[in-house]
Design a protein that fits this description.
By secondary structure, the chain is α+β, with helices and mostly antiparallel strands. Helix content is 25%, strand content 24%.
Length: 787
């Protein structure tokens, strides 16, 4: 490692502009003649459309469904057996299936004027019964969203691995566990600016997207354009988390209009649109049973899991991504012989569900870790002892678990032991016996998770979806003055790639990172990529940059050998110079020679010069497996229901960390979101499908006072198949907190006989659970101690 290379805690290059307020987001784009767009949206969740019309005075500023001739609906399909496709109209014409669905587009000089026009559009809807409960949606008398399906099930999956062998286990514990639907609330909402470039004869779309090339794919399909006629530019992105990973019907509307109107148009999502009409995440329900021996050794897991997928599958694919993954990832890092899982992806009259930071893992971690604690109570063991007895061991690595997930490396028991030691479990148990002067109850909780990241072709090919990842490409090009330009197809929405990818290039080429520029987020200039998702950028884009840098290093050394009059095999590239027995020559001199003094080059010089584009895949592309053990101490006020986090410990293993400081930031941010899932965030709907939160007065996000500073401990087991041994870790911080916090709250309330199994754990739910309990007062020492 050098001061700037892989493993260095280099300050983020991005911060210079972000902290000075010089970032450029979609809302900062200003183009001559630009007009603003507002949409007419459905006020009902489920209704037949009788008519949508505009009177003569405003008709020229309103786009109605009938105007979009030749525009195809959004179809996000899967080749999975039994999957039912939904077609999402760009502007609804026959029926609406969610509150906020687009009915018309209005254009004016300002957003306020466009909203005034939208208020004048006449909408006549015939309300239908709404499907608002995903469990009731499977009942025979339920209303149907997509009548031709015959039911409300996008996809049903079933896995059975030797399950019957578990049925005679002496311990059987069953729980119903549910996680609330959440709103994805990045600082920057979604937005689009579109115009037709008449000189280049292509449509230009500025949109804050995690997947610029995927958006271009879908936009071309819907608008009937060749992809060469579309350029997607994604500038700075103020948080993505999956929310900015899809093609929007708004994108298609603005693109269609920009091709015809002769001026740019802009739509910026306001927070009310974000909360009521955007996409959601996380709504899961589990009925899970754990089978175990009396020593806590797992015999098997049986689970029925349901995920509320909303009204449509969003492009490129969303409807059954979570539920279908539940069956394969529920076992997590545990080694047991019998397993059965049945899942349903359900259509409801709510906005579509998207993969949010952690993509199904937060739900399965919560279900699995709560059932582990329940088994521990039944066995009269400390929960961490049950975990230790069932975790896959380091000597088993690489390990194929019961669902054939290939765990590449790691030491899960050590991570758990470190977390238990750091939280000082014996002192917490002693504190529980002593009791608190203020009457609050202390609880400790643990959770362990694994995160499969950087999934490759071998994982996604069988899904039959429009975004199967392949080789991730990077371009590395020297500039005439010895600088380096890197181009990648993935895009940053907070991962610090403008800092970390130059560190990768520096590790190989020795060029100062201040002279390395990353170009990304523009389909005109970057290699094709499925984008930024699934904790893949450090592995895939980092691997591509490393591969391209090594190839470029070979070209540099060949020219250097000629200038030094020596054999290329005798040269070494380090510190930004080519060194040989006859002296050294700087990369700047070599670049100057190629670009500006070609007469000094040998006759047989490689015609590629100092620019390469090359693709990368790990040796095995089934994904990397990062993981962590979380331990948390909470105080619960049984009179008020209030929960305070007193201490939080995270022991994580992300393999080789390109920039440990950046990893710390990723974990801090993920922890904040995980705490939101555990204690605060809930997007409720009433029986008519109406969202009950339309501002942040109704939807509670955790802030600085709710998020403690965690204590982090980094382990490092190198991934065997990737460059430098890196593992994807961007989503990990958000996965484990709901499980750890839930277990801690249940530990605190154990004396009441209370077990909370629904997130978020709000004060109201705590008090209601205590009131339902048969115990009026806690048995002081039983609230945390094992019997």
């Amino acid at each position: 490692m050098t001061e700037q290379g892989v493993g260095a805690s280099l300050l983020r290059k991005e911060d210079d502009r972000f902290l000075r307020g010089r970032g450029q987001y979609v809302g900062d784009i200003r183009l001559a003649g630009m007009k603003d767009v507002a949409f007419v949206r459905s006020p009902l969740a489920h209704a037949n459309i009788r008519s949508v019309s505009a009177h003569e005075a405003i008709r020229g500023q309103v786009v109605l469904p009938a105007d979009l001739k030749g525009v195809k609906p959004i179809g996000a399909v899967s080749g999975l057996q039994g999957f039912k496709a939904s077609e999402q109209p760009i502007l609804a014409h026959d029926k609406v299936r969610q509150v906020g669905e687009l009915l018309a587009m209005c254009v004016a000089d300002t957003r306020a004027a466009a909203e005034d026009i939208a208020a004048q559009v006449d909408v006549d809807l015939e309300e239908l019964p709404a499907v608002h409960d995903m469990l009731k949606a499977r009942e025979p008398d339920s209303a149907l969203l997509h009548e031709h399906w015959g039911d409300n099930v996008f996809l049903e999956t079933f896995v059975d691995v030797n399950f019957a062998a578990a049925l005679d286990a002496p311990i059987k514990v069953t729980r119903e566990i549910s996680t609330a639907r959440q709103n994805m609330s990045p600082m920057e909402g979604r937005g689009t600016v579109a115009y037709w470039d008449s000189r280049m004869e292509h449509l230009v779309l500025y949109t804050g997207s995690q997947m610029p090339h995927i958006v271009r794919n879908g936009l071309a399909e819907c608008l009937g354009l060749d992809q060469v006629q579309i350029r997607i530019i994604s500038p700075d992105v103020g948080g993505g988390f999956g929310y900015k990973g899809i093609l929007l019907p708004e994108d298609i509307c603005l693109g269609w209009y920009a091709m015809r109107c002769g001026h740019p148009v802009r739509w910026l999502e306001d927070r009310r649109e974000n909360l009521t009409a955007g996409t959601n995440c996380r709504e899961h329900h589990y009925r899970i049973t754990g089978y175990a021996d009396r020593d806590g050794k797992l015999r098997g897991i049986d689970c029925e899991a349901t995920v509320d997928s909303g009204a449509y599958s969003s492009y490129p694919f969303s409807a059954c991504l979570e539920a279908a993954q539940v069956a394969s990832i529920l076992p997590g890092p545990y080694d047991f012989p019998s397993y059965r899982c049945h899942t349903w992806s359900i259509a409801t009259n709510k906005c579509p569900i998207l993969p949010y930071r952690g993509v199904a893992r937060t739900g399965v971690c919560t279900a699995m870790e709560l059932i582990i604690d329940a088994i521990a109570r039944e066995c009269e063991l400390e929960p961490h002892e049950v975990r230790r007895r069932n975790l896959v061991r380091s000597e088993q690595m690489p390990f194929d678990n019961i669902t054939k997930k290939h765990f590449d490396s790691g030491n899960y028991p050590e991570a758990l032991d470190r977390a238990i030691a750091a939280i000082d479990l014996p002192s917490i148990r002693a504190r529980q016996k002593k009791g608190e002067a203020d009457g609050r109850l202390i609880g400790v909780g643990h959770s362990v998770y694994c995160e499969q990241g950087a999934h490759g072709t071998s994982v996604y090919a069988g899904w039959g979806i429009p975004m199967v990842p392949g080789h991730e490409q990077a371009t590395a090009r020297m500039t005439p003055d010895g600088g380096l330009e890197l181009r990648i197809g993935a895009h940053s929405h907070g991962q610090s790639m403008e800092t970390t990818l130059p560190q990768v290039a520096h590790e190989i080429l020795g060029i100062d990172t201040s002279k390395i520029k990353l170009v990304h987020g523009d389909t005109e200039y970057t290699p094709y990529s499925t984008g930024s998702w699934g904790s893949r950028c450090a592995v895939m884009s980092g691997g591509a940059v490393a591969t391209a840098s090594r190839e470029l290093a070979g070209l540099i050394k060949k020219i250097g050998a000629h200038l030094l009059q020596t054999e290329v095999d005798s040269l070494e590239l380090s510190g930004g110079q080519v060194h040989g027995a006859n002296g050294s020559v700087t990369i700047e001199e070599i670049a100057h020679t190629w670009y500006r003094r070609p007469q000094d080059l040998p006759a047989g010089v490689d015609p590629r010069g100092l620019e390469v584009t090359i693709g990368y895949k790990p040796q095995r592309d089934s994904g990397t497996f990062s993981y962590a053990a979380h331990a948390v101490v909470v105080a619960v006020d049984p009179e008020m229901g209030d929960i305070e986090i007193l201490d939080y410990v995270i022991v994580e293993d992300g393999g080789k960390l390109i920039n440990p400081m950046v990893v710390d930031g990723q974990i801090y941010g993920g922890l904040a979101q995980g705490i939101g899932t555990a204690l605060y965030e809930e997007m409720n709907f009433d029986a008519s499908g109406q969202p009950l939160a339309s501002t942040f007065a109704d939807y509670l996000l955790p802030g600085p006072t709710e998020v403690p500073a965690p204590r982090l401990d980094h382990m490092e087991t190198l991934a065997p198949y990737t460059e430098f041994g890196v593992k994807g870790i961007g989503e990990g911080g958000a996965i484990a907190p709901p499980a750890a916090i839930s277990n801690a709250v249940n530990d605190a309330l154990r004396g009441y006989g209370v077990e909370l199994l629904r997130s978020p754990i709000t004060p109201r739910r705590v008090l209601e659970a205590i009131q339902r309990s048969q115990h009026n007062q806690p048995a002081r020492q039983l609230q945390g101690a094992v019997a």
